[in-house]
């Protein structure tokens, strides 16, 4: 009889439920093992200042007035600098150093064949010093490029982020992270531990020393007008740190400005001795919980395709003008990123601000008087 060779429906149903439960349980165990055991990060909670948790609350859209220089010609120009002749330079993601002479025509200047060029600065004996997050520090002149520094204490210099040259020839530069590379920057953000450094390279002695260790993503570097201190941006800490090079505090490190309304990227000295700091939006009101949940951090680190869900940096832009006392003088933004977003650098030259961005194919130019 059929009832002797088939299970009764209720028994079959229970069997199916048990099988499904077992499969779900096994999948959950596998997912948990995958997420926690193989997670590439060892995260801690990121402290987000209230000023940065809802950055779009400030009504400030002056950056929507930027003139787009070299639109379509410049792939993700992260940093900009201007030499003493007024020539504007930027390093692009496709490995070019491009420049614009005063007539506003851009040219391909030197090709470095790297997808990891970051901070740039002019050098006092001509040419530029360029950070290559894969190769180290490069010198770029009319003759081409050469490597200035590729190793620190016997190890490859990785993730050189920004650089400035002092008048005595010493080169101060940041290392974003000693653990994660440029293309894994989001893992460093999720881990939120201090893997960054500020270093000083003395070309005469061919010696590199650590100026500040344990920075939570070391980024922009600038010297004060009198070179009595150097400032380095600590992006995941929403602050900039100052190290004294002269005076009674020589050798000491203190906080220059903190509780910034975004993560500080590049910092540049303004002609009047103040600084311009570009801020990137690291979080949003809706997604702030990601940075305070260890489980979420492991999940995102294990499934990198999800990272775009929380990447808020491409949704707005903000730059600050900060005085020598760490006081905010001016703040310009594009809250919804309508014209420019993910601004990583702001350089003042002849009453204009020049803006680099990792989400643009142009350099933004903002006339300063009309922006006030
Ligand atoms: Ca720079
Ligand atoms: Ca940078």
Automatic annotation (TrEMBL):
Q: Which UniProt keywords are listed?
A: Glycoprotein, Membrane, Transmembrane, Transmembrane helix, Vacuole
The entry's protein name is Strictosidine synthase conserved region domain-containing protein
Ranges of residues in domain Strictosidine synthase conserved region = 165-247
According to the UniProt record, one GO cellular component term is: vacuole
**Phylogenetic lineage:** Eukaryota, Viridiplantae, Streptophyta, Embryophyta, Tracheophyta
Residues crossing the lipid bilayer are: 12-37
Q: Which family does it belong to?
A: Belongs to the strictosidine synthase family.
Keyword Glycoprotein among UniProt keywords = yes
Q: What is its subcellular localisation?
A: Vacuole
InterPro entries to which the protein is assigned, alphabetical? 6-blade_b-propeller_TolB-like (IPR011042), Strictosidine_synth_cons-reg (IPR018119)
Q: What is its main location?
A: other
Q: Does the keyword tRNA-binding apply?
A: no
